Amino acid sequence: MTPEWRAPLLLFAAVLLAYANAFNGAFQFDDYNVIVNNPLVHSYAAWWQDLRQGIRPLLKFTYTLSWTSATGTFAFHLGNILLHLLNTLLVWQLSRRVLAQHATLAAQPMLPLFAALLFALHPANTEAVTYICGRSSSLMTLFYLLGLWLYSRGREQHSALYLH
């Protein structure tokens, strides 16, 4: 295994181990109003019809993806865990970019991994990962971190494409 794959694999293992018990979780609280009793997320046709008047179409689309997989809550929890893993990898990448700009911090190659592990395993993220309706927080975090990553990449490459 090449060294550049060690950190992402460790982060993947940490997230999976920390949240493996989420796969046993059932629908709870808001899940019933937002997903189980909401026919607008039970089919792609219903989702499409609601597209113009509904709110949060991307979030509802992810619910539709999970619902139509016919695997019950497993697909919902898998989706939440994968979103959290993507967010964790973005934190790792952003940390690497930021630390590379500071000579004293760049000498500490484990700091980005530590920052990503802290994000991955911090209890504040538990609800976003284990509670099915918590997906909205993870999606928001994904686009926020992705925006920061694109901005940092644009600054690094002096590319207006990423900055506008």
Radius of gyration computed on alpha carbons: 18 Å
Main sheet summary: none
Tally of separate helices: 10
Molecular shape: globular
Low-pLDDT parts are none
Record field, number of beta strands:
0
Helix content: over 70%
Structural class: mainly alpha
What is the H/E string?
A: HHHHHHHHHH
Beta-strand percentage range: under 5%
Mean pLDDT: 91
**Amino- and carboxy-terminal Cα gap:** 38 Å
Question: What's this entry about, in short?
Answer:
The protein has 164 residues and is mainly α. The protein has 10 helices and no strands.
Structural notes for this entry:
The protein is mainly α. The chain has ten helices and no strands. Helix 5 runs parallel beside helix 9. It is globular and about 55 Å long.
Keywords:
164 residues; mainly alpha; 10 helices; 72% helix
